[in-house]
Amino acid sequence: MKSEIIAVGSEMLTPFRQDTNSLYITEKFNGIGVTVAFKSIVGDRQKDLVNAICTALGRVDILILMGGLGPTEDDLTREAVAEALSLTLRRDASQVAALHARAATWRITMPQNNLKQADVLESATLLPNLNGSAPGQWLDTTFGGYRKLIALLPGPPHECRPLFDIECLPRLSVAVPPRTIAVRTLKAAMIPESQADKLLAPIYTTYTDVETTLLAHTGDLQITLICSKPDADAARQRVDELAERVEETLEDWLYSSQGDSLEQIVLYYLELRQATLAVAESCTGGLVAERITSVPGASRSFLGGVVAYSDELKASLAGVPVELIGRHGAVSAEMAKALAQGIRGRTGATVGVGVTGIAGPTGATESKPVGLVHIAVCDAQGCDAVERTFRGDRNRVREWAAQQALDLVRRRLM
Amino acid sequence: MKSEIIAVGSEMLTPFRQDTNSLYITEKFNGIGVTVAFKSIVGDRQKDLVNAICTALGRVDILILMGGLGPTEDDLTREAVAEALSLTLRRDASQVAALHARAATWRITMPQNNLKQADVLESATLLPNLNGSAPGQWLDTTFGGYRKLIALLPGPPHECRPLFDIECLPRLSVAVPPRTIAVRTLKAAMIPESQADKLLAPIYTTYTDVETTLLAHTGDLQITLICSKPDADAARQRVDELAERVEETLEDWLYSSQGDSLEQIVLYYLELRQATLAVAESCTGGLVAERITSVPGASRSFLGGVVAYSDELKASLAGVPVELIGRHGAVSAEMAKALAQGIRGRTGATVGVGVTGIAGPTGATESKPVGLVHIAVCDAQGCDAVERTFRGDRNRVREWAAQQALDLVRRRLM
Question: What pTM does this model have?
Answer without folding.
Answer: 0.81
